[in-house]
Every structure is written in C-alpha cells, then in structure tokens.
Amino acid sequence: MSFPVLPRERVHEFVSEVLIQEDLNQSLVDDFLDRHAQRVPTLDTTPAASVGARLHAAAVESGLTDDDLEPVESQFSGAVFDAMMQLPLEALGSVDFWTYVSAKHFWGFVVLRQRNSVIRARRKILDRILAPTTPDPEVTEGPLPLERYVLGKDHYQIPLRLFLRAQAVGGDQRFLDENLVTAAPTDFWRSHVLGVRTGAHPNWARPLVAAQADQGLVMKAQREPAKAINRLRANLSPVLHTEAEAGALVTPLWSSA
To answer: pTM of the prediction?
Structure first.
C-alpha cells in the first residue's frame, strides 16, 4: 500500500473516542491516528494538510457553523480538488484513504460544518454510557450521526464532497464562484448533482449549476425538473454533448419549475 489509511471499521471508535472529550482538538485526533492508522511515511500529504488548515481558518473567521458554512465549502472546493489531484490516483479511489484525510487534515472543519451532528452524536454517546443496557435500539445500536461525514465512501463525507463538487464542474473554481448556489445548496448538490450521474459529466453539471444559481429554486421546487433531467440523461449519452448542447436541454427544464 502506497498511502496512509484509517480502516473504515475504526470510524465508529474514532468518533466515539474523540467526541467524548470536552475539547475537540487535533491532538485527540492525532493520538487516535498514532494508534490505529496505517501510515506510509514516504507519501507527502502536505497539499491536503495545507488546504484543510486554510479551510478551517476560514470557517473559524466566519463565525458560522452547519449549513451557514456552505459558501465557504464552495469557495474551497477547487483548492481541495487541486490538492488531492497531486496525490496518487490509487489513493483517491480508497475509502480508507479519504477517511484518513478527513480525520487527519479536515477534522477542524468537519466539526464546524456538521456542528448539529456533533451535538447529536455526543448525546447518543452519553446515553450509551449512562444506560448501556437500555432496550431502545435507537440508543444502543447503529452509527453515530457524525460518522458519515468522516467515512470516505460517498458524497456525504466532507473533503470528498468538496473534491467531487469541483470535479463535477471540471475543477473550475472560478465557475463555482460565479455560480454560487444559495437556495437549498446542500440538497441541490447532494441530490441533483453528486448523488446522480450528472456529477460525472461536467458538460451537464455546469449548465445545471448555472441554472440553479440563476433560478434559486427551493428544495421542493427542485425535485420535478431534476427528475425530468435525470430521465433525459438516462436516454442519452452525456459524453456526446457539448456544454452548450447540454445547456440547451437542461436550462429550459430547470427554468420551467
């Protein structure tokens, strides 16, 4: 293996151990990784460390948490994409590598961006400690709310979703800045770009993002045009269309809502 990993089966233990502490500082994370991560000293993850630190600093400076940090997330997506593309492609396909990156380099932003999940996870941890024999499976079983934002398996995980957002628009940060989605942005990106095949085709994703930035559809209003676009894309080969051609199909559908 040519890259460091935090095995996915350690994520629950990681979140439980770190969140039980009052101060969510990086030293707790580093101590856990020293004991459980599988490291490769020869791989330099400095690019990821640098952008993770800048992202955290920007979030702290904003004074915001949770969905209010969406503009900061958008602002740094291109930088995350550029940083991660400097690393081995083999690593970028590994769930356990992205999990390591989230814990090691993006933890500070994770706990701010998902502050409500931190609170709910802590409450669940304390419930399990105080009532370990409770018959309620909602208390004793299942993952903690924050785990999906650390586990690097899909577009919920924070550094991976920033990477995927930029990748969906061709790695173009200027495009993201000029087409900032402000209406129901988290649901838009998660449900209608990254969570469907549109996210794999920048020639389709870019006009869709531009249409939402212009139209500002609320969450409920996004659903029907999104279904129409998905049906259309399923019957066509997205790679055969230019961005302008895809836009001529996508924009009217989104604007008809």
So the answer is: 0.93
